[in-house]
Specification:
The complex is a heterodimer of chains A (254) and B (158).
Chain A (H helix, E strand, L loop, with lengths): L1 E5 L2 E5 L5 H7 L23 E8 L2 E8 L10 E3 L3 H17 L4 H9 L19 H9 L6 E3 L6 E3 L14 H5 L8 E2 L3 E4 L4 E7 L6 E4 H10 L4 H4 L3 H14 L4
Parallel strand pairs in A: 1-5
Antiparallel strand pairs in A: 1-2, 3-4, 3-5, 6-7, 8-9, 9-10, 10-11
Chain B lengths: L1 H11 L6 H12 L4 H11 L3 H10 L11 E6 L2 H5 L2 H12 L12 E6 L11 E3 L2 E3 L4 H20 L1
Parallel strand pairs in B: 1-2
Antiparallel strand pairs in B: 1-3, 3-4
The chains are: A alpha+beta (254), B alpha+beta (158).
């Protein structure tokens, strides 16, 4: 553990950890959209800008940088709010609101920073192309059903070759991490649809209580990756807990 | 197709780092990147389809759609642009009866535009089947097309 200074306060932090995460852990709020502790910081949304003063070659230098992918280093001093930072975040938000005017979170942040006039041509999108869904799909789920497509103003996120995804398992992890909540998941009695990825999955219901557990493909994926009793894998979390509680009681742990 | 693709992969090895080289050779072989070929690359090289699709759509040199036998590329870089490249595109579009980016119905010609090929002093530039033609005027476009058609006819007769 080393000492760093954030907004004048000395904070104990782990060297090499994400600066943004360290600040958040210490109750210092830095606005961010695309950061998620489960995956490596990608620095796409550019909102978590802070000023870092560090010594290099015997001279102290202050620079504006994204905090999510900036490591905690000995002796750094961090400012999370200043005129300069707010001005730059405002610039970032002007771009984000033009890209995703329908996204609630982006609108809230824009209002907070007083961005109203749209400085750039507006698209009707909600996705800010941060790629968090892609990362979670690949690095957390180990599926790689999603990827970027194209580049520049035509860049998009989607399934390969733009057709019904072979790889998607319908776990909806992408939807749960999406900072702008633009990935819709529609569950019906026995199907789950992810219209953005053009995927329709069969839902499996809990053997005991009948509640939806997960998609067929998701359970098959779990079978390969998680060591779990066949009996409990296909029941819902509530019934699973009950099963294990009963088992523990029978074995006299409780 | 499978064997052709496997042979191409053998040239470079199945490392992910070689993906770009493999895709370039596949495109050289078929003039575009056919879906089955990419599926095979994914299978053999163990690279996800998402990753291949990203690379194939990232570079404008790659095409996922079948292209014509002959590829006409008009440079639309700044230097060529100010020297009248848009007129060359219009002329091609008129003669080939196809919009830029499209392929003629008989699958003979694909018309493409590119933003600078690095030969600005020769602008405006037209590249036909890899051959560079500098200082082009729109009147010369029909000659270029005719030349290709003639060569084809000769080949067909032989």
């Amino acid at each position: 553990m080393i000492d760093i200074v954030i907004d004048g306060k000395t904070i104990q932090a782990e060297q090499g950890a994400s600066l943004l995460q360290t600040a958040l852990d210490n109750g210092i709020d830095i606005p961010h959209l695309c950061y998620h502790p489960a995956v490596e910081a990608y620095g796409a949304c550019r909102l978590c800008l802070v000023e870092v003063t560090a010594e290099s070659h015997g001279r102290k230098k202050t620079k504006l940088t994204t905090s999510c992918n900036y490591p905690v280093l000995p002796g750094i001093e961090v400012v999370t709010d200043s005129e300069n930072i707010r001005e730059n975040r405002k610039g970032v938000l002007e771009l984000l609101i033009a890209r995703a005017p329908k996204a609630k979170r982006v609108r809230e942040l824009a209002a907070e920073y007083g961005v109203d006039a749209q400085a750039y041509p507006v698209s009707g999108e909600e996705c800010i192309l941060c790629g968090l869904c892609i990362q979670v799909c690949k690095d957390v789920m180990g599926v790689e059903a999603l990827g970027f497509i194209g580049r520049g103003d035509k860049k998009d996120v989607g399934t390969p070759f733009d057709d019904l995804s072979k790889e998607c398992i319908g776990c909806a992890s992408c939807a749960s991490v999406c900072p702008t909540q633009c990935i819709e998941v529609i569950d019906t009695a026995d199907t789950r649809e992810l219209p953005r990825w053009r995927a329709i999955h069969k839902l499996v219901r809990c053997r005991i209580c009948g509640k939806a557990v997960a998609t067929e493909k998701h359970l098959a994926h779990l079978k390969k990756t998680v060591n779990m009793d066949e009996d409990v894998r296909s029941v819902c979390p509530t019934c699973r807990r009950e099963f294990y509680a009963k088992q523990a009681m029978a074995e006299g742990h409780m | 197709m499978q064997r052709t693709v496997d042979k191409i992969i053998d040239r470079y090895g199945a490392e992910e780092a070689e993906l770009l080289a493999v895709l370039m050779d596949i495109q050289a072989e078929y003039n575009y990147l056919p879906r089955p070929a990419l599926e095979r690359v994914s299978e053999v090289m163990g690279v996800s389809r998402s990753r291949i699709n990203y690379m194939a759509t990232f570079f404008s040199a790659f095409s996922l759609e079948e292209r014509g036998k002959h590829i006409c590329t008009v440079c639309m870089g700044t230097a060529c642009h100010v020297r009248g490249a848009p007129m060359l595109v219009e002329e091609f579009e008129r003669i080939l009866e196809v919009k830029a980016g499209g392929t003629t119905e008989d699958m003979q010609f694909t018309l493409e535009t590119v933003n600078c090929v690095g030969a600005c002093a020769l602008g405006p530039l037209v590249i036909v089947d890899g051959e560079y033609h500098g200082n082009q005027k729109s009147a010369q476009v029909s000659r270029l097309v005719k030349k290709v058609r003639k060569a084809d006819a000769k080949e067909g007769a032989a």
